[in-house]
Amino acid sequence: MMYLTYPELGVENFTGSEYTGLACSSCKSFYSKDSTHTYCQKEGCGKPLFAYYNLPERFDKNIFNSREPNMWRYKEFLPVINSSNIISLGEGFTPVSKLDNLSENLNTDQIFLKDESFNPTGSFKARGLSMAISKAKELGIEECVIPTAGNAGGAMAAYCAKAGIKATVYMPRNTPEVFKQECELYGATLIQVDGNISDCGKLVSQQNNNWFDVSTLKEPFRIEGKKTLGYEIAEQFDWHLPDIILYPTGGGTGLIGIWKAFNEMEEMGWIGSKRPKMVAVQAEGCTPIVDAYKLQKDTAEFYHDAKTIANGLCVPKPFGDTLILNAIKQSNGCAIAVSDNDIIAGVKEIASKEGKLICPEGAACWAALKKLSAQNWISENDKVLILNTGSGYKYLENLV
Ligand SMILES: *Cc1c(COP(=O)(O)O)cnc(C)c1O
């Protein structure tokens, strides 16, 4: 396994990060590289910040062939400036495989799955938290906090453990036990909350504490980690993007990050202007993005009494709602909801036919794909990519 060659990281060709600073995704206010602000401070704005780069016109992407198979292979386009600050457990460059046994009744047999369950802590949250905690270390931060629906808490706890940063995790009490246990094993302080991730977020913001809040998109670097998904998809599909990407959408960092990666790569001339249709998949028990999409709005309403077995999708009011809805619209994509019953059936179907025990969030994409195919939204020969965002093993207590 090449993963074992870490910590060399294959950085011999590293030319330095091209990171230039942060700018507000809405009002464009600029923040310097040393800023520890987590979201826009301009009065009346308060929107997510994006990292910007001095994107080179000429960059030989063949360099990647000689680098380690993890997300740091794209270091030039990531915000960590001094590579000694990188906290890596081997995240990223997860496999893409074709689902040959499952395409029978679908409009296309070009169905691919990118399997993020291979990441440390068993979910793609590792990408975002590896980046956020590396950057926190670079900025001299000593304590981090996160409100989480489950996987982000475990990932933050693991990377903080490796970085020697104090970690506090706010998690809904009704999250499956394994998500809580891993946080404690990684040495984090776990605070259980009667409520959902929004209630956790509210409690975090009410504490008068001098910690770094790495809430989804209220912190600009997790999305830079998730962005590497977009670079990998391009590289793994030989720089020809698929036609459709189905993404299980909670806070939406992955979808927004993939979209940002595509824009950066186009600016560097690595890909053309053609984009995959981006599909935001949600659970019927929590559909803020689907509802806004249907009403053609560019912000989402708070979704009350949210509940689904796919806890990563249980985000009643995504902070990055406008960014998610923009990407769907610009890509001619859509937003679609599936039931928990279909999700559970999907987990079982993929496990028994493809030998992959995927998470409910990933199975939601499979269920959505079947629906979209039945509606003829998917055409013959469309190349479709499903993201399985995590391991099904962490959810077993609710699945069988
Ligand atoms: C967090 C999570 C999601 C949703 O990701 P967002 O970036 O919040 O949209 C999907 N699947 C799993 C397994 C997750 O942990």
Detailed description of the structure:
Helices cover 32% and strands 16% of the residues. Helix 1 (125-138) packs parallel to helix 2 (151-163). The strands form three sheets. Strands 4-5-13-10-11-12 form a six-stranded mixed β-sheet, sandwiched between helices. Strands 8-7-6-9 form a four-stranded parallel β-sheet, with helices on both faces. The chain has a three-stranded antiparallel β-sheet with strand order 2-1-3, with no helix packed on it. The protein is built from eleven helices and 13 strands. Residues 1-13 have low confidence and may be disordered. The two termini are 32 Å apart. With 400 residues, it is an alpha/beta fold. Bound molecules: pyridoxal-5'-phosphate. Pyridoxal-5'-phosphate binds at residues 123, 125, 151-152, 216, 248-254, 312, 359, 361, 389-390.
What class, by secondary structure content?
Answer: alpha/beta
What is the residue-mean pLDDT, rounded to a whole number?
A: 93
Number of helices: 11
Which spans have pLDDT < 50 for at least 5 consecutive residues? 1-13
Give a brief outline of the structure:
Helices cover 32% and strands 16% of the residues. It has 400 residues and is an alpha/beta fold. A hairpin with a 5-residue loop joins strand 1 (19-24) and strand 2 (30-31).
